[in-house]
Structure formats: structure tokens, C-alpha cells
Amino acid sequence: MNYKKFTLDNGLRVVFVPLPNLESATITVWVKTGSRNEEEKVNGVSHFLEHMVFKGSKKRPSTLEISQAVDAIGAEFNAATSKDWTNFYIKASVGNLETGMDVLSDMVLNPLLKKEEIEREKGVIIEEIAMYEDTPMIKIGDVFEELMFAGSSLGWDVAGTADSVKRMAKSDFERHRESYYYPDNMLITVSGGVDEKEVRGLAEKYFGELKAKSEERKGEPAFNKFSARQAKPQVKLHPKKKEQAHLILGFLGHGRGYEGRFAEAILSAILGGGMSSRLFIEVRERRGLAYAVKTSIDRYIDTGYLATYAGVDPKKIEEAVAVMLEQHYGISNFQFPISKEELKKAKEYLKGHFALALEDTKEVNDFTGLNELFLGKVETPEEIFDKVDSVTIENVVDAAKKLFRPERLNLAIIGPYKDGERFRKLIE
Question: Do 170 and 112 sit in the same domain of this protein?
Fold first, then answer.
């Protein structure tokens, strides 16, 4: 995969990946801000603003006019907000690239932020928060991060709370935009069957007028750095009457640029990366304790974690947790050694899934965008494959020893339980 990177006159970076065999292209606008950059009283403003971008812009002053412009070219568009980034994208046929760029730039750079729309959208977001509360497979991730990142804005819900959403006013969105929506803190990624000259011209035409940060707000944007204070295993119980218990068991890890991240990725794949992974076999196939069990890694710029999710019979949760811990610690203490065949399988699993993901232009933009936004560089798939292949069994075991320590352990549970003391004793 070849990519081009250039900077507009106003300082806005553009990363372009030509995929000449495709008849489509995806344009993504990235903003380096999310819920971790917010003040507690306006927690959720990044996510709320993402919603408001679709409610009317300078050229298309209503939701209907924006959606009609997108539907008229057979395109798809959406947006997302995380703890540390917000993005907006349009995927269209190559012949409609300019229309896509026009609509997207108008939405992101010129939202109307009508007061009546803000008030109306508050109800929508409060219902979204309620929906996640009633969806334990999603909610458990929030409970886990609340536990692991307690005392930090990283532990806050991306959508905010019902109270913080109700307090939002137009001035909050304007202040947020002025603080974060400027060229040096933004990025455009484009991938698909278009050429560099066209991308350069359209990016300059539709984003070239984006102004630099005002003088009175110069300096680095707000960033609430996470400082780990954990000294022993932690448990957080979210009591809820459900037919199934949901849990995440995880260990505090490392940030986006960590040099050992490829060894950690292989460790994650060995533990719970597929239907032949250790946890899938031990927890589901041999003991029948769960339908779903999956290990993954999440990273922020300064911290991260390796964690395993499982949905289990509430009566068998202690057994499930015990098996999961045994499998984690069994790698670091050599109880369950990693074989050469297992290492090779994990490497091919990672490379294969990564290669499949890059067949989608939106996924290509996600890969290039996050790397450029946070690390200032984009590694090619070939470079990543080489780094994965260079990992040894010793590297993976060393990663396990660094991660799987009691003072890094966190367990979050949603289920029909009255208190978490029984689980605290189990993990201690």
C-alpha cells in the first residue's frame, strides 16, 4: 500500500491512499479531540457536536437537505466519537468525489448549531445513553474503563450523562470548536480510485479556508494525562437483573506508540483472538461457560489495556473468572508454554485480519488516520507484517510478564449480584 502525505497552505494535513482498481472513495475528516479532553460539566460535548453537524449547515440548512444531497449521489455517510478523536466520513463513487468533499466540508466547518435543534437533540442523546445502559455487551466496556481510569477523564462516558447533556448550550459547542477544530489539530484522509492531483485540488478548494487557531487561544489543546495509581487488583460491580452476567477482565497496559505492541497483539490473539484461541477453547468449548469470549487491546496515546470479554451463566461466573486468570498467568509463569505452531498461527491470524480490513476504503482511512493523528507517521502494511513476523516466543512471554501482574488487574461485572466482595476475594 502506497500513500501520499501533503499539507495545505493553512497547515491542514492530508493523507491519500490511491487504490486505482476501485470505483469508490472514502473521505474522512479527523479532529484530535474526544471525551478525555472535556471538562466534567460539559462531558459529552464532543459527541453532541458530532450529532449537531448533521442538523444543518451553511449551504444545506436542514437535516433533510444534507441527507438528500448524499442520497442523490448514492453515497453513505456517518461519524463517530471516541475518548480521544472524532471523525466524519463520506463514501461515494469516484465520479462524485467533489460532491462528497463539498457536503462533508460544509457539515464539519459550517454547522448552524440552531438552538431549537440542540434542544431537540438532547432527547435523542439521552435515549442513546439509556439504550447503552440496557445493552450490557456495550455497557460493560464503560464500566470497565470507569474502574481502570477512575479519577481521570478517560473514565468518563463518551456520550456524557443525562445531566451534562441537559446543560449543553450553543456557546459550549462554539467554545469546543474554537478550541479543537483548527488545521493543526485536524486531518483529512482519502482512499480509493482517485488520483493525487484531484485530491489536492479538492482538499484545497473545500478545506483551504479553515482558519488557524485564534491568538487568544494559542497553545496546546487541553489534554488530561492519565496517571496510574493502581496498587492492587480492582473490582467494579454494576448490579443489574439479567439472565446473563457480562464481564471484562483486563490488565493496564501501554499507549499507542509502545515498542512492544506487536508482541502484545500476538499475546492477545493467542489468548482470545479466534475460535481456536486458548480462552475460546477453555471457557466455551471444554467447559461450556460462555457463548462469547474475546480478547482485544485498546490504546490511547499515554496508556492502554489488554482485556477479555465474556458473557456467562451468572451461576458459573466464579469458574469463568478463575479459568480466565489461569490462562493469562499460565503464559507468564510458563505453566502453559507457547509453541512455535501457536506463535505462527497467531501471526497469520493478525496479518490475515489486517489484510482483509484494508479491502475497505473506510478501514484504510481509519488505519492511516489514527496513525498520522497520534503518531505523526503511517507504517505501511508491509512494515507491519515484518514487525509481526519478527516477534519471538520470548517477546510474547516478556509482554505477558509485564502485563499480567496483580497490581494491573481489573475486573468489571454486570449481573444479578448484590456486592463485589466475592469477586474481590477471587482475584486477590
Answer: yes
